[in-house]
Amino acid sequence: MAKPYPQVVLLGDSLFEFAAHTLSGFSFQSALQTRLIRRFDVVNRGFAGWNTTNVLKYLPEIFAEPSASSPKIEYLLILLGANDAVKPGAATSQHVPIETYKENLSKIINHPHIQAHNPKILLVTPPPVDEIKLQEVDVAYGHPAAIRSSAISASYSEKAREVARENPGVVLIDLWQAIMGEAISMSPEDYQPGGPWLGSPENGKQGGLDKLLPDGLHMGGQGYRVFFDEIKAHIGQNIKPDDRTDYIIPDWRVVTPPKVDLPKVTPIPLE
């Protein structure tokens, strides 16, 4: 019987689907797989345009119940809400009411097919949006105005925080705070503490969001680097690059023992 690798699953919308891309020289998924190579498989289940209602409907098709021969989901990262937070009445029909969004997240976390794997769940808040940039982008696509707003998106991120607090064992990854904090540090002169957030019409300035969220919604390479830095503290933090005893399939020195003791080679950096 084949020995399956435990999995790290990325479940979400385009913010995870696009994590497989190399953007400005950085790929979130590649960096994570490099960190976990030969110990875990990183599986991307990001679905561009999807909201929590879509995921909940298709979840039995996305996740099979575990069996003796199937891989176990060891870590599950959930990043949903950017599409739920589309304004009500928008032509895309992606909007999910905020309380339904919260209920959907809890149902996903507690779904029998997921709980059967008993994974460590990392619930990620949606990042902020740059409404100033989205106004340009969405109008260019034919919408009368931006279909997302800074304030509405921030409220959905707060609901994700509530879900993490209300579900014991769920780890919160506050991507909203991480991206906004980095954006402010990149252009501190554009933000006054306690004032309107960057990217909002009330502030009128984008600050670092212009680089972190190139189209106002999706992260670029710099944004994904910020995200990866948040994840590192929770996945693979105990891996020692020069210790290969925890490989799922043994190291070559085990399957083909060398005739003499070989000097240790400095491993390639994980990041």
TrEMBL record:
Domain SGNH hydrolase-type esterase residues, every copy: 10-226
InterPro entries, sorted: Iah1-like, SGNH_hydro, SGNH_hydro_sf
Gene3D superfamilies cross-referenced by the UniProt entry: SGNH hydrolase
Pfam families documented for this protein: Lipase_GDSL_2
Lineage top rank: taxon: Eukaryota
Protein name as catalogued: SGNH hydrolase-type esterase domain-containing protein
Taxonomic classification: Eukaryota, Fungi, Dikarya, Ascomycota, Pezizomycotina
